[in-house]
């Protein structure tokens, strides 16, 4: 299925010009990996649901997996330079980091985002869930993302 959102296409082209390949493009996530496989970047889109800000994607089995943050986590932003472009990040960023990683100030040797994270949101297929703007089918570009 081709990417049908003009903004998604712009983001994908931007990262491809900077040496990244599209790994995944779904409802509220676009993931890239650098061609040398040293780095990867995930872009998540968050939206309000049941008093929280959530990012959620439909899994192959029909369930939903994502993350949640306090409703005010994204009320304020500040500018930051990322890959040569100004982007907005949460201000202050610490509540988002703590929700995602717990004690983020203590270095760890490896991090598994599929493992147990403090703000994990798992919903069975039959559970109430927000209406997602997409069908749940993975998106792809012409180069096979």
Across the major sheet, the strand order is 4-5-6-9
Main beta-sheet strand count, sense and barrel state: 4 strands, antiparallel
Low-confidence stretches: 134-145
Gross morphology: globular
Number of helices: 2
Mean pLDDT over all positions: 80
- Distance between the amino and carboxyl termini: 10 Å
The proportion of residues forming helix, as a percent range, comes to: 10-25%
| Number of beta strands | 9
Question: How would you describe this structure to a colleague?
Answer:
- This protein is mainly β.
- It folds into 2 domains: 1-45, no CATH class; 46-125, no CATH class.
- The chain is 14% helix and 35% strand.
- The protein has helices at residues 6-17, 94-101; strands spanning 20-26, 29-34, 40-44, 47-49, 52-58, 64-70, 77-82, 85-90, 120-123.
- The strands form 3 sheets. A 4-stranded antiparallel β-sheet has the order 4-5-6-9, with helices on one face.
- Strand 5 and strand 6 (64-70) form a beta hairpin.
Which terms would index this structure?
145 residues, mainly beta, 2 domains, four-stranded antiparallel β-sheet, three-stranded antiparallel β-sheet, 2 helices, 9 strands, globular, disordered C terminus
Condensed summary:
The chain is mainly beta and 145 residues long. The chain has helices at residues 6-17, 94-101; strands at residues 20-26, 29-34, 40-44, 47-49, 52-58, 64-70, 77-82, 85-90, 120-123.
